[in-house]
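Researcher: Re-running this chain for the archive, since the previous output was lost when a drive failed. Same request as before.
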Amino acid sequence: AGTLTPAGFYAGPILDGPKPTWPGSVAVSNPEQGRKSVDSLKNKLHVDFLKVYSGLSKESYYAIVEEAKKQQIPFAGHVPGSMTLLECVRAGQRTTEHMMGMIETSSDSSDYYYDVMRGNIKDTLLRNNRPVRRAFLQRTFSEKKLASLISELKKNDSWVCPTMTVNRGIAYIKDSAMMKDPRMQYVVGMIKNMWNPANDFRFRNAPEEYFENEKKEYELNKRIIKLLHQGGVKLLAGTDTPNPYCFPGFALHDEMQIMVESGLTPAQALQTATLNPAIFFNILNDYGTVAEKKIASLVLLKDNPLDNIGNTKNIQAVILRGRFIGTPELNEMLARVRKMAGN
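Model: Regenerated structure tokens:
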């Protein structure tokens, strides 16, 4: 790793079902393949944790869980379509991303919803029409059901990484203000093309109703984040770059801003990107707070982020493992990225 590479923890290839969403994922068609994949990722690729994904069958998921516990490696990621969020939490999944399963589990009609999705009840409109389905879940959201979920998350020490930047990026993907964001100058042409909804297999045929529902769901998720935080669930800042309008580097600042919009104080939002990850990865002896004898990796700001979380963007200098990177060098790095992007 180069001297300017931050410390990192890596999952390696995604563990997905037999027809993976993304190239490079491990296709898991049965429990035996799941167990072998865990063994390979742990002992050949030496990954730090496993990332489970949407297409896993229930049988494969539980085989991965069993092997992960045997091999003593944590697993995190999506809530597979075959699972409920509660099942993943009770199985020991360390984090769930993108607020997956939150609204489904917090619906006062969640049992009906899951019965329809599993084919136990015939409701063709709900099963086959995503905008109808999401609107139904938003309508039936219950704070009482969420409170029950919160107690399960806490009991199982399962964390939440909301990645609201990607949820916002998808909801507003057709918004001209997003396309005119000045940070687009740092984005290479290939990624810009990916962010065009006409080129994304997930959104190119989506009706306008789809995005209207996504916007409503984004606001509901903000409300849920506030309740998760108030209920004592531990949160981690995440972004999901390079999904639409998750600007590499910048998006983490956006995520903290959204945390504050969701009801956290600036200090609490900062902790989701500093203290909390250090606790989660068990590296608090070296990282997470500014203290004597810890590794000197710091961001020095021109203005106080406790007054306004947006001040995290006003960077004076970065110290990375003791190396000082001042404003001129930071500006040079940005200029290089801009040039790479053809601007």
